[in-house]
Amino acid sequence: MPAGRPPIKVTKEIIEKAESLAAQGLTELQICHCLGWCQDTLIKKKKQYTELNEAIKRGKSKGIALVTSELLKKIKLGDTTAQIFYLKNRAPEEWRDRRENVNENKHTIEGDLKAALLKDE
Known about the structure:
Elements lengths: L11 H12 L4 H8 L3 H10 L1 H27 L3 H11 L1 H4 L13 H12 L1
């Protein structure tokens, strides 16, 4: 009898569970823990079973879509916190709290003093 664990079979149920866990926002490491796998096994199985890899991607997208949908509902109801969160994340250059003022002026004290002295001559 061969030693070691029996090979892991990727079934339809495992694929559906992985998609559901990804939709709930779990990381791939957390999905591994829930499935009783190590991370190396997931990496190998995603390469071996493209449907597993696609299910995890699809699950992540479904989770983001659900949260985005709920956020947009709050925005439409006038929730200013949700509005601010959305704008800061979707257009951070225009909606950040703190703007950095970059001084494009390349004057130096030494250069300005020299220019003033030369001007006075």
